[in-house]
Design a protein that fits this description.
Blueprint lengths: L2 H12 L3 E3 H6 L4 H10 L3 E4 L2 E3 L6 H8 L4 E2 L1 H7 L10 E6 L6 H4 L3 E6 L2 H5 L2 E5 L5 E5 L1 H10 L6 H13 L5 H10 L3 H10 L5
Parallel strand pairs: 5-6
Antiparallel strand pairs: 1-3, 2-3, 4-5, 7-8
Length: 202
């Protein structure tokens, strides 16, 4: 293996599994060597100038790196937070109203929600790891419980009950923030009523 290929291999291993032409050139790899490496290793094009080995792409990390203002929500957040073991069929995220994403760049199986309230958009978001070990931003457990109750019809009963019960049985929960967020969403009474029915004691 020549020196340029060693540099590229090291970049893939030390990064998120992707390989950027711009970064490769910055590390001294000539464009021609980069092109030969991509071709000989049959790397898959993620977007312009960025490639990865097939099946080794962290879609959540890549998408958030491209659109830094998105926050994962819905079933994607539940999966990241380990409130469900159901693998999401699509990538679900929320953006503030002034943010724009290109539909063709997020894939046909992505679900984009728009939050009109800037304060609520930024409130209660956390950093968590993907299955590849990269950190991404998603709704917190407390925020997700409130959002699930607020949008109850978006979640089937099995998913809803398991996620809420897993949250309530966990030790690292902030009920003060949960009710604060529920109050700001104007669903505090509804949230308390449902949690009480699930044997939650204040």
């Amino acid at each position: 293996m020549n020196q340029n290929y060693k540099i590229l291999e090291k970049m893939i291993e030390s990064g998120d599994g992707s390989l950027s032409k711009k970064d490769a050139i910055a590390n001294g790899v000539p464009p021609a060597s980069f092109a030969r490496y991509v071709s000989s290793n049959r790397l898959v094009r993620i977007r312009r100038g960025v490639y990865a080995k097939d099946g080794a792409v962290d879609d959540l990390f890549q998408l958030q790196r491209r659109y830094q203002r998105i926050v994962y929500s819905g079933i994607t957040a539940l999966y990241l937070l380990r409130l469900t073991d159901r693998i999401p069929d699509s990538i679900e995220f929320t953006i503030p109203k002034e943010c724009r994403v290109r539909k063709e760049s997020i894939g046909c199986n992505a679900i984009c929600h728009i939050e009109n309230n800037e304060e609520l958009f930024h409130l209660g978001n956390v950093s968590t790891g993907t299955m590849f070990g990269n950190n991404v931003t998603c709704y917190s457990k407390e925020k997700m419980v409130v959002e699930m109750i607020r949008k109850r019809d978006d979640y089937d009963s099995e998913l809803f009950l398991k996620a809420v019960k897993t949250f309530l049985n966990g030790k690292d929960k902030d009920m003060d923030f949960l009710f604060q967020y529920a109050r700001m969403r104007k669903v505090e009474e509804k949230v308390y009523r449902i949690l009480e029915a699930m044997d939650y004691e204040d």
